[in-house]
User: Which sequence fits this backbone?
């Protein structure tokens, strides 16, 4: 079986600026990174985003020097007030740094409206060589893998797919056994671990208290077996309780 490509998600080094993320990825052997260009929600503008202009030029220079590329960017949240035109500058920025994919979060409870607006953004992204993937989670309007897969299929857009995060899959009652039947909708994977027992604060777990793959209890091998081996694994392991020291001991090579 071919070895999967790994991507280092910025949330794994949550308080690290994008240039330092590139250098850390190169040092650990990650060929790709995922960076924040836009907050996942207005109240979540807490991550160091890659800003246009000089910061982006420094970021691109670091990527060239280290041999690292951008696989994915975050995030495009869709609420009831979202205007698809607002994301055109974000997509331009994503294209400028060579991103191949962008993550979408659907908060709008009016799903037909969200689908219509997202279709416009899919067209704009496709024109820039970027595909979009919806991440389902308990905190969004698409809470489960089934709901998200239905949304993707009903949209019918070739450049829209589903992003599966093993933590969100587990915390919304899903399992890898469901993924085989949904393979046609899955275009992106994140990778982390966690204990099976749900925590008291699920949001805190998601953004700052996950486990290193293999050190938790999630059925990660079953997830890998159920998904396309050609899909890169976006390693998203925020662990603020150890102040990111876990990364010093993680080298996938």
Assistant:
């Amino acid at each position: 079986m071919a070895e999967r490509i790994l991507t280092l998600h910025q949330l794994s080094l949550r308080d690290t600026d994008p240039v330092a993320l590139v250098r850390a990825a190169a040092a650990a052997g990650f060929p790709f990174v995922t960076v924040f260009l836009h907050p996942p929600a207005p109240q979540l503008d807490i991550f160091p985003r890659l800003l246009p202009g000089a910061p982006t030029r420094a970021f691109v220079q670091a990527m060239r020097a280290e041999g690292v590329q951008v696989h994915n960017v975050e995030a495009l949240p869709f609420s009831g007030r979202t205007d698809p035109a607002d994301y055109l500058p974000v997509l331009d920025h994503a294209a400028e740094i060579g991103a191949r994919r962008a993550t979408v979060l659907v908060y709008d409870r009016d799903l037909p409206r969200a689908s219509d607006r997202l279709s416009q953004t899919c067209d704009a992204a496709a024109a820039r060589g970027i595909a979009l993937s919806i991440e389902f989670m308990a905190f969004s309007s698409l809470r489960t893998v089934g709901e998200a897969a239905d949304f993707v299929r009903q949209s019918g857009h070739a450049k829209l797919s589903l992003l599966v995060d093993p933590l969100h899959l587990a915390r919304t009652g899903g399992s890898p056994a469901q993924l085989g039947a949904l393979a046609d909708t899955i275009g992106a994977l994140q990778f982390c671990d966690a204990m099976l027992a749900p925590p008291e604060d699920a949001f805190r777990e998601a953004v700052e208290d996950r486990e290193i793959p293999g050190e938790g209890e999630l059925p990660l091998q079953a997830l890998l077996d159920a998904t396309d081996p050609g899909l890169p694994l976006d390693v998203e392991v925020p662990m603020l309780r150890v102040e990111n020291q876990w990364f010093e001991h993680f080298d996938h090579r």
